[in-house]
């Protein structure tokens, strides 16, 4: 029994002395419960909206304030004309536009019927449905509060809901860009990091380094097959999305493939960086799963709207590369946007590539020395 107790004590000491094991056992569950607790929510707050007020009377201004004071919406801008509406959606500035008809107050008080149009960006079907329900509910409460002060009978506010880019609210319109980002990240980053770490673990990397090949040629040779595999995966996802699930490709297919290739290179550079840090395949796999899978699913906007998240997590989502790639794919596929609307996200992806390549070169030189 004493030997058994000594053995158990030794195992406890072994765990406590290993910082990586303590990180897995203690820190990871705490991080996961915090992320899941804050991210998984059906309530949306501070969603960006635009207002197209064709009436500009006191009643429309009061209705606007009622919407904004609810906490669900945040005003991005007032639109001057309907021509600005689609541009705002393509730039991904707003999730919904509320349009008040001309003479809104006159129609409400005299004709007993006034019309409001709710135009939502339905490229994210769940968010569009939730926001339109919120706005309809608030306008209904606004109508009832004013009906109590009208002596000659009740007036009605008709809300017409219009879904841009996804009229049937098909969830697959959102899942195809997200799945593409996740698969490209897994195939490129995880497999590259494991492949290079395997070479180091078994000692074959030293053999390659003393061969006539230069280090950058070794790295390019290792990642080239994954570029082709990622391209094949991209084409297969797009083909199945188009032919099986009828997800449109409204923008340029060439631009879409260029962005997918750019994201693949980014994922490969991230995989190379992980391989320079990881000591063996298990560590590389753990780092890839924890650093890539969970953020891609939870913090990229793939499943849960970023507007739901508290401010710290929204800031963290800015350094999650799949977030920007998903935005690009949605803009090109669903909104028909060109490079004029995705240049910012493209530059961000390029910046990530420069960052990870620079870190990998620095880390690799340190290891060689």
Automatic annotation (TrEMBL):
Keyword Magnesium carried by entry: no
Signal peptide: none
Keywords: Cell membrane, Membrane, Transmembrane, Transmembrane helix, Transport
GO CC terms: plasma membrane
Membrane topology annotation: Multi-pass membrane protein
Cellular compartment(s): Cell membrane
GO molecular function annotations of the record: ABC-type transporter activity
Listed transmembrane segments: 21-40, 172-196, 223-245, 251-274, 286-306, 341-361
Record-annotated ABC transmembrane type-2 domain positions: 132-367
InterPro entries (alphabetical): ABC-2_transporter_component, ABC2_TM, ABC2_TM_bact-type
Record carries keyword Membrane: yes
Family under the similarity heading: Belongs to the ABC-2 integral membrane protein family.
PANTHER family cross-referenced by the UniProt entry: MEMBRANE COMPONENT OF ABC TRANSPORTER YHHJ-RELATED, MULTIDRUG ABC TRANSPORTER PERMEASE YBHS-RELATED
Designated name of the protein: ABC transporter permease
Taxonomic lineage of the native organism: Bacteria, Pseudomonadati, Bacteroidota, Bacteroidia, Marinilabiliales
């Amino acid at each position: 029994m004493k030997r058994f107790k000594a053995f158990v004590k030794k195992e406890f000491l072994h765990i406590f002395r290993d910082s990586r094991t303590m990180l897995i056992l203690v820190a990871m569950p705490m991080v996961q419960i915090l992320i899941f607790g804050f991210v998984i929510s059906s309530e949306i707050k501070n969603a960006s909206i635009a207002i197209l007020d064709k009436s500009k009377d006191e009643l429309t201004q009061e209705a606007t304030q009622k919407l904004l004071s609810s906490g669900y919406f945040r005003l991005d801008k007032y639109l001057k004309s309907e021509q600005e509406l689609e541009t705002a959606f393509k730039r991904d500035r707003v999730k919904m536009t509320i349009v008040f008809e001309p003479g809104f107050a006159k129609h409400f008080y005299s004709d007993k019927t006034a019309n409001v149009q709710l135009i939502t960006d339905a490229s994210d079907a769940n968010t569009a449905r939730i926001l339109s329900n919120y706005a309809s509910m608030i306008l209904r409460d606004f109508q009832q509060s004013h009906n109590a002060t009208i002596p000659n009978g009740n007036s009605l506010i008709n809300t017409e809901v219009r879904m841009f880019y996804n009229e049937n609210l098909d969830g697959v319109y959102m899942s195809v860009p997200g799945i593409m980002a996740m698969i490209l990240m897994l195939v490129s980053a995880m497999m590259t990091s494991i492949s290079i770490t395997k070479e180091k673990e078994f000692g074959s990397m030293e053999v390659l380094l003393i061969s006539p090949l230069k280090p950058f040629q070794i790295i390019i040779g290792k990642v080239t097959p994954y570029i082709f595999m990622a391209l094949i995966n991209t084409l297969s996802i797009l083909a199945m999305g188009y032919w099986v699930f009828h997800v449109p490709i409204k923008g340029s297919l060439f631009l879409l493939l260029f962005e997918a290739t750019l994201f693949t290179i980014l994922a490969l550079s991230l995989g190379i960086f992980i391989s320079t840090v990881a000591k063996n395949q298990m560590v590389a796999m753990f780092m890839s799963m924890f650093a890539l899978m969970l953020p891609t699913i939870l913090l990229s906007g793939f499943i849960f709207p970023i507007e739901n998240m508290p401010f710290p997590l929204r800031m963290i989502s800015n350094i999650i590369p799949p977030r920007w790639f998903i935005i690009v794919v949605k803009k090109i596929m669903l909104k028909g946007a060109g490079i004029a609307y995705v240049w910012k996200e493209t530059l961000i992806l390029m910046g990530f590539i420069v960052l990870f390549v620079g870190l990998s070169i620095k880390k690799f030189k340190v290891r060689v020395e």
